Structures are given as C-alpha cells and as structure tokens.
C-alpha cells in the first residue's frame, strides 16, 4: 500500500478541537477516496460512506430539511444497519460531494451540531458548468485541503527509500557536500523513473509491482482519456471543444523555445477572449498549473506576477510524458532527451514545486533575459535554473551581477550533476528539488 502525506494531514485535522467538516479536493484518480476511507476505518468506530457519483439517488437524502437529525434519520432508513451514528464515534464520508450541492450546504449544520465528523471529497469542485452551485456555500464551516498525485518524496517511499536516506540527503544539502556516488546514481535513476511514471497511484503501484512501462503508459493514457471525457461531458456546450483544444495544445506549447502560453498555438488566430475560460476550466479541474512571469525579481512574488503572461505545465509529469509520442519513456530512461529536454525537465520541476504547495513563477524580459523559476527560499527571492545536463546560467549571472537592480543575492542551479557551489550559485542535482522546503 502506498504511503501518502495526506494521512498526516487527516490525523492533524482529527486531533484539532472544534474541527470543521473537511473537504479533500484534487484531480480525478489522485487517490482521494482510498486515502480518506483508509483513514476513516483506522480512526473511527463507525464509517458511513456515500458516493454521489456512483449513486445519484443518495442526493435525495439532502433534498429536504438539512437538520442533522433529519439527515441521520433518512440515512439510517436508506442504508439500514450499515449506517451507525454515535456521537464522537462516527465519520460521514461524502464522496464526490460536487454531485450533491445540498450536501455541501449541509456541512454548516454538521459544524454547528458537532456530534459527527464529516469528510467530503471533490474532483471538480467549482469547475464551471459542472453540476449546480450550492444554494449556500458553507463559508467558515468547512476546511478545504488540496490533494495531489504522489509527489517525488512519496514516490521515493514507494520505491524503498527510507526517511533515514532522505535525512542524509538533507544533511548533504545543508552542509553543501557532495552526495556519495552510489546514492547519487540511485537517486538519478529514481528521478528519471518518476519523470515517466509520475504520481498517479495506479501508475505508481503498477510500476512498483511489475516495472512494466507499457502497462504504466496504458494507465496514464486511460486517465488522459477520462479527463477528455470529463471535458466533453461536464463543460458547458459552447466550451467543450475549446477546452479539449487547449488541453491537447500543452505539449506543443512546451516544445516552443519561448514557452509562454499562446492562444494562437491552440488554434490559429485564437485570442484570450475566446479561450481564457477554457484554460481556466482545465486549471480548476486540477490538471494543469500556471507559472506566471514576474515584472521584477522581488518579494512578494505574487504581487509582482503578470496575470496575463504565463506558462502552463501539467500538474503530473508522468501524464505529460504520456501525451508525447511513443518511445519518449524509453528515451528519458536512457537519458536521451533530444528536442524536448527543456520542456520535460521544466515540467518535472514544476510538478515537484507545485506538489510542495509552491506557486510557480518565472522571469522573462524581451532582451532575452530568462530564468526558469523564481522561488521564495529562506525569506529571499531566489532564481532557479533547470538544466537537463550541463548548460550556462547566463541570465542568472547577469541578475546576480546587479543586486541593486534585481535585488537577488543567491541562486540555485538544478541539473544532472552532484552538489557543489560556485560563488553565489548553489548547484544541486535535479532530484534535490523536493528538499527546497524553506519558504
């Protein structure tokens, strides 16, 4: 069974006094239902489970009065002996809660009542055109946490890398000392495997159990197909084809030299006014993340972001690779990256940063100055350059030479080499990106 960080989040929530109902939000098939039910059965005497996607009839329970006693009466009548409600001993799990807006409204009443814990999961919460909006969103009566596919650290756990080994890597980074060669080579190998497998639980489990990359690829492409089916099924009629066109343009967007998202690449002559809502739909569904260009390299990063100038990355690097042509997996595992190498490793680092909870930013000027990512690190704005192998850091060096103009005093270079330092630039192996945790 895959170890997930959401387990600790759920435990911390349960140990919080006067806790509110919890909503676990994330893209389809990232493991929400499995993790929530596993936690529920381990930590509660009674688990009452409703899946509104599989059983739309359950919504009728919430069609009348939303008083807790009425809902309990209706559920015990509907489910019989499988629905046991004991104060302090029962958790109600509302799976795919976006399919029953009234159930989300009811969270307010469960919060006030306080006898039973409630956990909801949602894949398409707030996505335009999906279902009906709740009559009343329970503002202040719910806690929302985001869940992602497995991140790189969770992938390492799945492949036998212990916390002790990760602590050793942290120590190497803190002391800026090279990683022992055997461990360094193993981590490089695992990073390439993560690049092609990504973090979808079904894909990771299949990889761990069988190492069959053809089966992994089939799972990933089935997931991509299910996302496209959602776009056609749930989006508003006028948006269906535009959303799919936006989504399918992502590999082409990232293969360009200038990776800024361009609506004209989606369809010749297209504009933001025609396609911006479609791109937003895909982002709201948790499939992509945007990386915004900064006007200046200063904190606060979000305050200096240009909202109309951005790149788009897939939230899961494995799904991105599955959208490329056959044979790409083999090339990556062999270290032969050809023309896509920049896009592949940028999307990999975007995946790692995004799953850490980092918002994504880059810096580009018309003069040609460009830095792949900028992060808040140890309270400073720090440029991060991503290099597939070697490569110069001309833009970063220019920025560091002019601290009075750019307000930057240190930088990080991620690449396929061991740890070291050259003046103000800390060089880290790509696999250490997940350790850049100090905000």
UniProtKB/TrEMBL annotation:
Domain of life from the UniProt record: Bacteria
Span of domain AAA: 18-156
Positions of the DUF4143 domain: 228-388
Ribosomal protein is among the record's keywords: no
UniProt keyword terms in alphabetical order: ATP-binding, Nucleotide-binding
MF GO annotations: ATP binding
Name by which UniProt lists this protein: ATP-binding protein
Source organism of the structure: Lentihominibacter faecis
Organism phylogeny: Bacteria, Bacillati, Bacillota, Clostridia, Peptostreptococcales
């Amino acid at each position: 069974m895959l170890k997930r960080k959401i387990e600790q989040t759920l435990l911390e929530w349960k140990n919080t006094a006067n806790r509110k109902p919890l909503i676990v939000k994330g893209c389809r098939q990232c493991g929400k239902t499995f993790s929530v039910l596993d936690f529920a059965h381990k930590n509660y005497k009674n688990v009452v489970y409703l899946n509104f996607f599989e059983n739309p009839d359950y919504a009728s329970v919430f069609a009348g009065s939303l008083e807790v006693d009425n809902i309990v009466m209706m559920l015990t009548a509907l489910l019989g002996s499988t629905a046991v409600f004991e104060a302090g001993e029962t958790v109600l799990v509302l799976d795919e809660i976006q399919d029953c807006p009234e159930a989300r409204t009811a969270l307010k009443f469960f919060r006030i009542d306080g006898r039973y814990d409630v956990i909801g999961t949602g894949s398409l919460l707030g996505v335009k055109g999906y279902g009906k909006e709740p009559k009343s969103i329970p503002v202040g009566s719910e806690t929302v946490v985001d869940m992602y596919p497995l991140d790189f650290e969770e992938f390492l756990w799945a492949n036998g890398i212990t916390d002790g080994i990760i602590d050793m890597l942290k120590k190497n980074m803190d002391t800026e000392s090279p990683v022992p060669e055997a461990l360094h080579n193993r981590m490089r190998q695992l990073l390439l495997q993560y690049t092609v497998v990504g973090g979808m639980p079904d894909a990771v489990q299949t990889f761990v159990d069988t190492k069959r990359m053809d089966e992994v690829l089939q799972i990933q492409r089935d997931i991509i197909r299910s996302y496209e089916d959602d776009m056609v099924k749930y989006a508003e009629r006028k948006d269906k084809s535009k959303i799919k066109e936006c989504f399918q343009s992502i590999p082409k967007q990232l293969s360009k030299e200038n990776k800024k998202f361009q609506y004209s690449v989606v369809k010749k002559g297209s504009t933001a006014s025609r396609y911006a809502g479609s791109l937003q739909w895909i982002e709201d569904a948790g499939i992509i993340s945007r990386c915004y260009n900064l006007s200046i390299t200063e904190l606060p990063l979000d305050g200096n972001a240009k909202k109309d100038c951005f790149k788009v990355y897939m939230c899961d690097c494995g799904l991105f690779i599955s959208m490329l042509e056959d044979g790409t997996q083999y090339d990556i595992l062999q270290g032969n990256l050809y023309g896509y190498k920049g896009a592949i490793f940028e999307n990999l680092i975007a995946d790692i940063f995004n799953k850490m909870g980092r918002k994504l930013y880059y810096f580009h000027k018309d003069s040609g100055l460009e830095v792949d990512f900028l992060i808040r690190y140890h309270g400073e704005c720090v440029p991060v350059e991503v290099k597939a192998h070697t490569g110069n850091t001309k833009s970063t060096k220019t920025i560091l030479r002019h601290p009075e103009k750019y307000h930057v005093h240190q930088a990080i270079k991620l690449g396929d080499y061991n740890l070291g330092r050259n003046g103000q630039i800390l060089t880290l192996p790509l696999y250490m990106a997940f350790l850049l945790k100090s905000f």
